[in-house]
Design brief:
The complex is a heterodimer of chains A (256) and B (208).
Chain A lengths: L2 H12 L5 H13 L1 H24 L5 H61 L11 H8 L16 E10 L2 E10 L3 E7 L11 E5 L2 E8 L2 E7 L3 H7 L21
Antiparallel strand pairs in A: 1-2, 2-3, 3-6, 4-5, 5-6
Helix pairs in contact in A: 1-2, 1-3, 2-3
Chain B lengths: L1 H17 L3 H12 L2 H17 L10 H20 L8 H11 L2 H8 L11 H9 L3 H12 L4 H8 L3 H46 L1
Helix pairs in contact in B: 2-3, 2-4, 2-8, 3-4, 4-9, 6-10, 7-10, 8-10, 9-10
The chains are: A alpha+beta (256), B mainly alpha (208).
């Protein structure tokens, strides 16, 4: 190593940035060259003085700055957590809504299957097994044939033609047919809340019939009729929870 | 809930990591902005930026270098815009500035008959001399001599090659020493002048 090379290596040498081999080269040269040794010594001294003075002369971060900085971080953290929580709950709410909507749709679809089945069976006019107009006779006939007591609603102005056993989908059902004043079929079957209907009658339609469904506990009633929905609504004011809804099946024009 | 405890943990981690370097950040910010108010703002911006990007920080890598990289980038991006200091991006401009600052005369003088700086050199003078360096040299000197980063770290912080770090450091330090040596000489001259004045005053007094 000559003096010119040493000048290049001097800065990294003093900063401790040379690999061992290069450092040994520098030190070998310095041992034999007083001029370079002197210059490096001065440089080392000045570097130390400058480093020391600049470091000692630098003030620490003011306490106010320190707390301000970390307060900002904390605030930002709180804000972000809040936003995240809102997003999370919004997502959860959205999901809940979707589930509720999907469930609602599913249950409406399920009910429509029962409505359709009831309408189709009513339309086929199966022969009746008992032909008696009185509700008590019909109830007595069904006694023991099904897992649940069949309470035949006492419809005002409606006359039963008779009854038989039928099914609505896979559920054994009592079927009561009325001929007057309009042909109607009533299905009564046990259901463990598979059919989405409450005590309040719900009107659906299938295969040209309107189907009115309501529930009394674990028993579902489905009335299949060709009456207009509006007529049915006017005809059906049964109080929720009424065990035997009273139907005035006369056309609206004849009522009042 | 798991997510919440994780952010709590992450904020605690962050504070613990930043806290030891806050003094260093402030010291560097003071030399960069040359103004206490701006230095505080710069540190605040830097820490907030670091916090926002904390998730991107690779655990186990050099956090201090990462912090100072954010500091210098923040400074370059926002603070320099507000000062009259011009960027040295343009190469011809850079060369002209360097030529002006490091005239052959300066380099020669600095490189040749070196002088010992006084051990009791005033801290304020050293800081003032650093503040007087053009920004590209100042950044390297701040990182190397004030913060004692390695060349490799400085190269990483400033996104420049190690060779550039070395040459800027060499020339920055030379300029710094020249300024300080000149200041000391002037200081001596001023003292001598004062002494002469005092003698003159005594002479006048004696005569009077």
């Amino acid at each position: 190593m000559n003096c010119r090379e040493l000048k290049t290596a001097q800065t990294p040498y003093l900063d401790g940035e040379l690999i061992a081999e290069a450092r040994q080269d520098v030190e070998a040269h310095l041992a034999t060259c007083p001029a370079c040794a002197k210059r490096v010594e001065i440089e080392r001294h000045n570097l130390t003085v400058i480093k020391q003075a600049s470091q000692d002369g630098s003030p620490k971060a003011p306490q106010t700055l320190r707390s301000r900085v970390f307060d900002s971080v904390r605030q930002d953290d709180t804000r972000r957590r809040r936003v995240r929580a809102i997003k999370l709950s919004a997502a959860a709410a959205g999901l809940t809504l979707a589930v509720v909507a999907a469930n609602h749709q599913y249950r409406a679809f399920q009910r429509s299957l029962f409505e359709r089945d009831a309408a189709l069976r009513h339309a086929r006019q199966f022969p009746l097994e008992i032909q008696k107009p009185h509700a008590q006779d019909i109830e007595r006939w069904f006694g023991g044939k099904l897992d649940y007591p069949v309470n035949v609603p006492r419809f005002v102005n409606a006359t039963a033609a008779g009854a038989r056993l039928l099914q609505v989908r896979d559920k054994p059902a009592a079927y009561i047919r009325y001929d007057a004043p309009r042909p109607m079929g009533l299905f009564v079957y046990g259901d463990d809340h598979e059919v989405d209907v409450g005590a309040e009658p719900a009107v659906g339609s299938s295969n040209g019939f309107n189907v009115v469904s309501w529930r009394n506990g674990d028993v579902v009633y489905q009335l299949v009729t060709d009456l207009e929905e509006q007529d049915i609504r006017e005809l059906l004011p049964p109080p929720p929870g009424a065990t035997t809804p009273v139907l005035d099946v006369r056309p609206a024009a004849l009522q009042r | 809930m798991l997510g919440f405890s994780r952010t709590n943990q992450s904020r605690a981690d962050f504070e613990a990591l930043v806290s030891p370097w806050l003094d260093g950040l402030y010291a560097a910010a003071l030399r960069l902005t040359r103004n206490e108010r701006n230095a505080e703002d710069l540190v605040q911006d830097t820490v907030m930026r670091a916090w926002r990007f904390f998730e991107k920080f690779e655990k186990g890598t050099n956090f201090r270098a990462w912090l100072f990289k954010i500091l210098t980038n923040t400074f370059i991006n926002s603070y320099r815009r507000n000062t009259r200091e011009k960027s040295l991006q343009d190469e011809s401009e850079r060369q002209s500035v360097e030529a002006q600052f490091f005239s052959p005369d300066t380099t020669e003088q600095a490189a040749n008959p070196e002088e010992y700086l006084l051990d009791r050199v005033m801290r304020e003078d050293v800081l003032k001399a650093i503040d007087g360096l053009p920004i590209d040299f100042r950044m390297v000197v701040i990182l190397a001599d004030l913060q004692e980063f390695s060349y490799k770290e400085i190269a990483e912080v400033l996104d420049i090659p190690v060779g550039t770090v070395m040459s800027r450091l060499f020339r920055g330090r030379k300029a710094l020493q020249k300024t300080l040596v000149d200041a000391e000489r002037q200081g001596c001259a001023a003292q001598a002048a004062e002494a002469i004045d005092l003698n003159a005053w005594r002479e006048r007094k004696k005569l009077g």
